[in-house]
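Section 3.1 - Work completed
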Amino acid sequence: GFYASATTTVSKIELVETVPSGFSVPSKLETAPLYFACTRPNSFAFAIDDGDPALAQQVLQAVNAANIKVTFFTVGAPLLDFGNNLTNVYKEMLGRGHQIAYHSFTHPPMEGLPDNAAIDSELTQDIDAVQKTLNVRSKPPIPPTTHPLGFPAHINTGKYFRPPFGTEGARIRQRLAAVIPGSKFINWSVDVEDYLWALSTTPEKQLDAFKRDLAKGGNLVVMHYLYPTTVQYLAQFIALAKATGKKLMRVDQCMEDPEAPPL
């Protein structure tokens, strides 16, 4: 039934076998492809989201000790706050060969934003912040073979995006494709559930969650370096992933991106 006093308009929808003469069907808008797992056979990628600058060195120590490369999805607004040292943290990550990718400007649930303009603003401001502070660009790539900050040229391009909270839908994927042609929308198949367990009395459940998804064949991680317990378990996460026999690499490498650095 109807429970509001506002005027309700009822439209008739008719299913037809053919498109009527003189009626044009709108073209489907291009959308960024959505990935939950790596496409390269026998690959595994740690994709690490936003974190606490005070814990960043511990993260770098863990991945360096394991001799692997990972991907960091970064929120743009904190990069512009030069009091938190995040820009220097990510410059060091870039210098060590890790990938920097996009994660919105202020970390809202983007599919729930009111309109396309709000979605575009989150994307473009993140892109601008990453370009301004780290010189990683979405388009076009810098022609020279050497990055202005002295890093290899392949880190110039950014076309990978992970949505805050993993929220995805047609609108945000359409806008991502429009703002960054050729972009990829990255979710995950291994969730350490740090948001549930890191600050609880049972932080070891993060290991249980990792093992559970690993056993299901997951090969693309989501985790944050927001919490000390999560960072403390990182070396164990890496060891468990290596024990599968899969090769650990950056997201662009595990997606078989021809512009990614060679393995």
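Second construct:
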Amino acid sequence: MSSIEPQTISEAISADHKSLDLYADKIRSSTTLEDKIKWRNQLTWALARHAISEELTMYPAMEKHLGDEGLRLTNTDREQHQAVKEDLYKLQSLAPSSSSFTPLLDRLMTDLHEHIEHESQEDMPRLEEKLSREESQALAKSFERTKMITPTRSHPSAPNRPYAENFAAMLAAPIDRFRDLLRSFPDTEELPEKHRSML
């Protein structure tokens, strides 16, 4: 009987990035307004949770294991996240029929890819070098668990540092999750396997 090896933090982050690209592509390729709204909601749900989970799990690990270099890198990451969160905040309520929608989606994904490039070229190699495989897998597990309790909408004015962010997230998450009950989302079978059990 073979068991599946748990993901490392780099693998977990990379899998999320691929899902975010898929959701943006689904928004662009959808032919009905209803489908565009569903995929916009899915992108918002996934990206908001991803960003906050990184800030609460990966960034403290970088600061702990990489010292001053980790602090410098996470400061850059937080600045990049802020741009993404501000774009997402506007997009999450904007009608896909608006003439501003596609340019805003394009800007969001450009900002996100700039951040992804920084993570994959700078953050992840440095962090993985300092962690054992088991430590990286434990961090990935923490990252995934944290997504289960974070807000599902963008709140760019909320704090983005541990403790203050933890508190703000605990206040916003239940409200976001209640509001999600009133939003439309893609059918479960349309989602990547990883996200099916999280809805």
